[in-house]
């Protein structure tokens, strides 16, 4: 049992609520720093992908999980970042500059998408972003002078102040530093007035408006930050794969990203990384499980999609808070032992609240 | 003459979009949720008809009716088992849920050995026939699509206008709580609406099958039907058909007049323009929100 008595607001918004936080996250950082010596080459690459997807997930979490705006075309921002990075480093622009440019270009595109999105709500916004994603994918495929079209484009290894990051370890550290920075930035953004405004918009637009929050400005800002993070993720993704083509940034990738944050847990920073871990390890788990399944099932091509679908349905039905919600319950059980009761986190069910009042 | 040909094929394609969009709108109006698995329901309907015809040797008409009935039952069961438990949760949950259903449907179909991974043709009696009117060559498959859509639209109109069931559905979609108070079994109606949407999807699948092929990924056409639903306004049944026709026509005309690549994204460009100009679509209802 741990009691935390808060007497000041500062304590309420502290990132590390108590010493335990510092200890455990410090331990996690040590493990991540030592990762190249602990994990074999292949697993290190997977951890790198988790970090990259985690950065993108943070951005999408800010947009969908904290500001409540759907985006069904988020892979487009990933693609914009990736192609900007590929084009600029191809021209010989130094890596840090190119990364900043990738983030900036993505953010700019995000603002352009965000502007019409101001008038749209819910499903209409989803469809607008979906349409945008399709259009951007087509642009990637057709604008061959820049993107190389459907044949794809090769990306050079990043070059940090004359130091080539062409090994798995060095690139892993680069991703780790960026992921930690992005996480800290999002955590601090969320405790600032801006972050609280985002959450207010998610919970009720009209209430937020009446509290003096400029809806248009904050929604656009949310789109911009989210797109910028996706751009950074896309740039790293391009460097990691060394080869990009338009079909990597299609609608299926967008749905994968949404799947990631929903399974991770909407509205939690942990969720972005937990979802990324899920997204990266799931194919491996399925591949391992294939050996133990009967031939007819194990070798069938549709298995992965089926498992994804079943897991997604199961999460929406039984654990709407995602993996992070599961962890919260687990932690609470220990924290307030023996007083945990089932249904402590249960959402109130209600009749459908209609948005269409006549 | 060529232009007329293109217009007719655009209308036929638009009818398919319209029918899928009709499914979206039916479910949206009744339950305020968006079914992202509508395209997959269409795919299942097509496969259902295919299986009945080729494996069990049903005659064409019987197979069509059986497939539609089977899909209707499937839709009702789907609503009962999967969708109803999350009634009252945010719309986003249902979107994720139906995306999951789509994944499962595609995965299951591709897992059927030797059938799921290939493309099939549906053996319909009017396959590859054409009528010649002077210089105009009319594809019978496309004419069947247009005629069937017209008949189905008329039937749906009559149902919603005159039958007790249709009026109860309208009432429930307009104001759920008031419908409850009036003794309308709203939950059962929601199930029936899902069944109706699945049946419409099955019809769309069977109509589309002769024009394209039957394969596991044919459901992705549902992503083109979203723009159709939005152009018509997401809460209007006639709007869905009109929207589908608009999208189909724009698509075929841009395939003819514009450089390559525009055909695939024409629908999305139209929907973006529409959303900027009229966010509620052509026949959309005005929304007001209460806190």
Q: Layout of helices and strands, plus pairs?
A:
The complex is a heterodimer of chains A (358) and B (291).
Chain A: H1 9-12, H2 19-33, H3 35-38, H4 41-66, H5 74-90, H6 95-117, H7 122-142, H8 144-147, E1 153-154, E2 159-160, E3 163-164, H9 168-191, H10 193-203, H11 205-210, H12 215-241, E4 243-244, H13 251-264, H14 269-290, H15 295-298, H16 303-318, H17 322-335
Helix pairs in contact in A: 4-9, 4-10, 4-12, 4-13, 4-14, 5-6, 5-7, 5-12, 6-12, 9-10, 10-12, 13-14, 13-17
Chain B: H1 2-31, H2 38-54, H3 60-83, H4 91-111, E1 130-133, E2 136-139, H5 140-162, H6 164-174, H7 176-181, H8 186-208, H9 222-232, H10 237-257, H11 262-277
Antiparallel strand pairs in B: 1-2
Helix pairs in contact in B: 1-5, 1-8, 1-9, 1-10, 2-3, 2-4, 2-8, 3-8, 5-6, 6-8, 9-10, 9-11, 10-11
Query: Major sheet of chain B, described briefly?
Result: 2 strands, antiparallel
Secondary-structure element order of chain B, as H and E?
A: HHHHEEHHHHHHH
Tally of extended strands of chain A? Answer: 4
Radius of gyration of chain A: 21 Å
What is the N-to-C order of secondary-structure elements of chain A (H for helix, E for strand)?
HHHHHHHHEEEHHHHEHHHHH
User: What is the overall number of helices of chain B?
Assistant: 11
Helical amount of chain B = 55-70%
The chain-level mean pLDDT of chain B equals: 85
> How much of the sequence of chain A is in beta strands?
under 5%
In terms of per-residue confidence, which ranges of chain B show pLDDT below 50 for 5 or more consecutive residues?
none
User: How do the strands of the widest beta sheet of chain A line up side by side?
Assistant: 1-4
Shape of chain B: globular
